[in-house]
Amino acid sequence: MTETESFESRWLGVLTVVLTLGGWTIVPILIKEFTADVDGWTSNGWRYGFAALLWLPLLVWRRLRKTGKPGLFRAAMTPGLINAAAQVCFTMSFYQIDPGLVAFGLRAQIVAVTLGAAIMFPSERAVIRTLGFLVGLALLMIGTLTTIGLSGKFGEKAGTLGVVLAMMAGVGFAGYALAVRKCMTGYGSMASFAAISQYTAGAMIVLMLILGEGSGAGALEMELPRFGLFLLSAVIGIAAGHVLYYVSIEKLGVTVSSGVIQLQPFTVAALSFFWFKERLSVAQWLFGALAVVGAITMIVVQHRVKQRLARAERGERDAAQDFADLPPDMIAAMVATHRPDETVFSSGSHEEDTEPEAAASKP
Q1: What burial class does residue 303 get, using C-beta atoms within 10 Å of its C-beta: 0-12 exposed, 13-18 middle, 19+ buried?
Q2: Which of 113, 200, 341, 357 is deepest in the core (most CB within 10 A)?
Q3: HSE of 121, CA atoms in CB hemisphere, 13 A
Q4: Using one digit for the tens of pLDDT, what is the confidence trace for 143-193?
């Protein structure tokens, strides 16, 4: 790759990660905005159903070409259903509390991923035992719990329920991420994302038909421009957002991309202030910053330790990237190639046999 191509690749990565952060900032705001129009079951059913429809052509194309590792839908079932359960908690939390507090509550995801990875994947234990990683984890937990505890709504019935739902969503998304890593190896991130979205959307639509007001028909009572914005939120958060995120990871790497996404609680809270007049105290902002610093510390330490282990095990070969911390409202499948002699994973595509760090000089 020439110097000019490298420069353009970096700037494309910067652009896509900024657009990803922007998209995943506006989506929680829009979900909250539409709580006045539809119930949570209806919101999930329409939004995920529409997003899954957008991803269906990729699966049809894959099927017609008869490419890729077989058994995609069988492998995607468990992650898809876990993600569906997490998505229910995530959306319902907006009916109780404001978006900024939801975003901070979701940081419980990182703690749950850490504990789950230590249990399920021996290769993670070397990372978790690192002092820097433990310090980052402590900062994350202290910052998150204090930010939530300082909320004036925490302690009230609705506020407490909303926080609990947001944290349960974080734990659920952590379980989803671990299931993706366990079940989706070798299928490629785009194909995995598309297949998982079908299961999640199917569950959301069934729940909407059973539990939604008028079986979801209430969404059709919105004026056409508002209904279009409602569906657009699915495109931004569930479809386009993940394509942009994959590109940013390919151009910048997991560590930088996921580090930028850690700013999401701040961007959501800031936008929520102007949109819904949600106010966080100075202390909440400071402890929220502490939580973000802790999360970024964990990501950086994880990356460095895995690079060191990979060099020790495989000479000078690049360390394969692990899945990134998954932001909210996602069916992201941060998975990729896994060779029999490797114990860590990358975010590339098995179908194209590329790894993200190698593809740029190497969506």
Answers
A1: buried
A2: 200
A3: 23
A4: 888 888 887 665 666 778 888 999 899 889 888 888 888 888 888 777 888
Q: Which two tokens stand for residue 224?
A: 């056409």
227/219 Cα distance (integer angstroms): 7
CB 280 within 8 A of CB 149: no
- Residues 198/192, Cβ–Cβ less than 8 Å: no
State phi, psi for 25 to the nearest 5 degrees: -90, -45
Q: Which amino acid is at 37?
A: D
Q: Where are the beta strands (DSSP E) in 161-244?
A: none
Which residues 6+ apart lie within 8 Å of 134 measured at CB? Answer: 128
DSSP 342: -
Task: Transcribe 158-197 into DSSP letters.
Answer: HHHHHHHHHHHHHHHHHHHHHHHHHH-TTS-HHHHHHHHH
Considering its fold, how many domains does the chain have in total? 1
Mean pLDDT, rounded, of the chain: 78
Where do we find the tokens 């056409």? 224
Q: How far is Cα 6 from Cα 4, in angstroms, rounded to an integer? A: 5
Contact by Cβ (8 Å): 174, 116: yes
CB-based contact 335:181 (threshold 8 Å)? yes
Which residues have a Cβ under 8 Å from the Cβ of 274 and sit 6 or more positions away?
none
Which residue range is the domain that position 227 belongs to? 3-359
Tokens found for residue 105: 């509550």
Closest CA to 349 of 160, 191, 235: 191
